[in-house]
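Q: Convert this sequence to structure tokens.
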Amino acid sequence: MVAGGALLATAVVLTALNLRPAVTSVAPVLGEMRADLGVSATWAGLLTTLPGLCFAAAGLTAPRLARRIGIGRVISLALAAITLGLLARTVDGPHVVIAATLVACAGIALANVLIPVVIKGSFPARIGLMTGIYTAALQGGGALGAAATPGLEDPLGGWRPALAAWAAVSFIALVAWHPTSRRHAGTWAASTTPTSGKRSLLRNRLAWTVTLFFGCQSFMAYIVIGWLPQVLIDNGVDKTQAGLLAGLTSLIGVPIALVIAPLAARSSGQSAWIVGLGAVGLVGAVGLTVAPGAQPLLWSALIGIGMGVFALALAVIALRARNAEDTAQLSGMAQGFGYLIAGIGPFLFGLLHDVTHGWTVPWTMFVAVYLVQIVLGALAGRARYV
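A:
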């Protein structure tokens, strides 16, 4: 049993490593992609907006699909979709890039929603620890995607093979996940079988609070992922350093996920932790609004600490539900509608930049949403159940 749990934990970590590079690897090479493909800024805005919208659509279907064919099989299909999408988007023109990105992001969305259910069902006594480990791996994968992709361009021969290289990582995760998950299929099926009739959380106030909290933090995270490198480049930071700083914002989330998320999960409520991380990140956001080129390392580090609240957003989904069945519903709702909100972020940020020809107004909008996220997080962190 211990060995089986360790193998499952390893498979969860390998899966998590693949839930961000498909998105974060694009931003540092977006300029080369546009030049090679001959596409407009609108196309680039669509590409950076697609992940959030796709996460919303696929995420809302994940619980139903899991009940139909099983959680393990859905995550296996998700990893296969990520692998195929990452390969396909590098073989042809702009339309294929968009379509293949949709495929990869659909796979990511399914796994995003269902991994918290796996943790709730298989590690009920270690929700905080496993959520922290999962989030750390997820953040680490995002950091690698942003930081390593620019360095892969020259040795591999361009942006296409540099992006395609991430398919190897998702294939390894698929090989590890599929046989391991089969051993736990019965447990997950039992834990997600409806016990008291079909129940909807759409009229539950706490469920909407959790959803809007998740949506606000994702809204800002995808702005950082999609636009921070370009903002820094426009303020005098070279491309490689901008990619590393963008990677840093994700990497900082790793120790936060490993240390703070388990501590917060053991607390009676998570509100103080959420507000504290939000306050730190808010300072970085204000710095990027007022003087983005003055202290890029400091602002990126502070933003990264603030983005560490993602680990608590995932933990809150499991902690506000009494069982795996409710966790699946709340996870689908929070991530489905939450990523729909997130998908607006990069597009709105870019639109405000185009309209104002500067970065001050977009970052002011970012700060305003940050304040809303802190309030919602304080409410979502209180010890209650949906």
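The first helix runs from residue 2 to 16.
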